[in-house]
Design goal:
404 residues; alpha+beta; Butyryl-CoA Dehydrogenase, subunit A, domain 2; 4-stranded antiparallel sheet; 12 helices; 9 strands
Length: 404
Amino acid sequence: MSAQPPSKSAASSALPPFDPRDPLGLDDLLTDEDRAVRDTVRRWAADRVLPQIADWYERGELPGIRELARELGSLGALGMSLTGYGCAGAGAVQYGLACLELEAADSGIRSLVSVQGSLAMYAIWRFGSEEQKQQWLPRMAAGEIIGCFGLTEPDHGSDPAAMRTYAKRDGGDWVLSGRKMWITNGSVAGVAVVWAQTDDGIRGFVVPTDSPGFSAPEITHKWSLRASVTSELVMDEVRLPADAVLPEVTGLRGPLGCLSHARYGIVWGSMGAARASFEAALDYAKTREQFGKPIGGFQLTQAKLADMAVELHKGILLAHHLGQRMDAGRLRPEQISFGKLNNVREAIEICRTARTILGANGISLEYPVMRHATNLESVLTYEGTVEMHQLVLGKALTGLDAFR
C-alpha cells in the first residue's frame, strides 16, 4: 500500500517561516563555512565601516586606509581566493559573499579589497615569477603593502590596446613612461602593476611606488566613490630592473584576465549595495506613516518592494551560480559579463526605487540609499561599461564582432 501524502496542515507546519530579507531561502545554498565567512566580514563592516562611512563619504576621504587594509588582511580578505603566499585560498562563492558584505557597507571598501586582491595580487600570482610572488604577495595578503593596477589611461579606457604608456629597453633595464587614470589605491600604494606597450607587445610591470620618476597625485572633487582613494599614475622615465616585468604573459590576455577576476567580485558586490538600499526602504516603509497608516500598506509601495526583492534575489542567485562555475573551473568571461551587466544595472534601479520610497529622506546621508546609488554610477562604468559588456555578449550570441 502506498504511503499517504502528508495532510495540508502537517505540510504547512513543516515549512520554515518566510524571511522578508531572504524570500527565496538562498541561505540554504550556503555551507556552514560560507556562512562563517559571510558573518565574519559582515561583523567587521558593521563595527569598522558603517558607524563612520557617512562622515567619510561627506568629507570625500578614507582615513586610516592602511590600518583598514591590515585589518582586512588579518580577516583573510585580501587575495582571499588565491592560494599560497599567505592567501586564504577561499572558494569563489566565499570571496563573492565577502564582496557582497563589504559593498553593503560601501563600494569604496569593496573596491579597496577588489583592486588589492583581484587585480594587483592576482596579476602577480597568475603571471609573475616566483621571486616576484615571494617578494610581494605575503605582505600584500597581510595588508602591510597596498597595491594598485594601472591599465586605464586618460584617453584610453574601453580600448586598452591603444594605450600610450611605453616601456623601452635600455641595456639590462626597462624605462617606463606614461600616465594612468582613475586608479584606485594609487596614492597609498607601495606597489603598482602597470601595463605598457613594448616592442614585444603589451607587458605588465611590477613597479615599487618609491621608484624615481613615479608619482600618484590623488583625484579629488568626485561625486561618487568618495570614500575611496582614486589617483592618477605618472611615470616619467621610471627605470626598472629586467626582472620587473611579469614573465608569464604578453598581450591583452594579461590585463583582461585580471579584469575578469575583478568583475566577478562586482557581480556579488553590487548586490550588497542593492541589499542595503532595499532593506533601508523596507524598514522605512513599515514605520513611515502617511494618510493614517504606514506607507508599506499602500499598493504602489508594496509593488515597488516586491519588484526590488525579485531583482535583488535573482541577482544573488545569478552570482551564486557564477561562483559555483568558477569553483568548478567552468566560468567563461562572457558569463562574467552577463553577471556584471545585469547585476550592476539592476542594483542602480533598486537604489533609485528605494530613494522614491524614502522620499526626501532618501537624499540624506542619514540613510545609505543615495550614497549607494552614486557609488554604483562608478561601478556601472569601471571594469567595463554597460556598452562593452553588451558587445561581449552580442559577439558571443552572434559570432560577429561589433567592437569596431
